[in-house]
Amino acid sequence: MILLDCREGEPDRTGQAATFEGYFDFETGELRRAGTGIPRLRMAEERLWGFECWWRLDPQRGGLSDSDRTEIEESKRLLRGLMRDARRSQRVPR
Predict the structure, then answer these.
(1) Which residue, among 49, 52, 51, 33, has the nearest Cα to 41 in the 3D structure?
(2) 19 pairs with which residues across the strands?
(3) Contact 64, 1 (CB under 8 A)
(4) CA-to-CA distance for 35 and 27, rounded, in angstroms?
């Protein structure tokens, strides 16, 4: 289940079901063992790499829990703060 789509400019896909395809080499797309590759998920016809979204296993298909919603909102606030700080640090003082 996708908790948060972290790609810039992408629509919010929070709570959407995804299928875990395994771990893959990012450069070649070859299948790898856990720990040596990047997780890849499929949503309909689209594939997401594990670093492009926050996700968790949902074998019972229970959807988003109350704690998921709380953590997502807190994470969004933290990410907005980090992005704001990054923009400020890139400004050139005059």
Answers:
(1) 49
(2) 42
(3) yes
(4) 16
Answer whether 2's CB lies under 8 Å from 48's CB: yes
Query: Structure pTM?
Result: 0.64
Q: Cβ(30)–Cβ(49) under 8 Å? A: no
Q: How far is Cα 1 from Cα 56, in angstroms, rounded to an integer? A: 6
Three-class secondary structure of residue 39 per DSSP: strand
Q: Is the dihedral of CA 87, 52, 32, 34 positive or negative?
A: positive
Query: 65 is written with which tokens?
Result: 């829990």
Q: For tokens 């923009």, what's the residue?
A: 87
Query: Residue 49's beta-bridge partner residues?
Result: 40
pLDDT tens string, the chain, 94 residues long: the values are 888 888 888 777 888 899 999 999 999 989 998 888 999 999 989 999 988 888 888 888 888 888 888 888 888 788 888 888 888 888 766 6
User: What is the distance, to the nearest Å, from the Cα of residue 55 to the centroid of all Cα atoms in its chain?
Assistant: 6
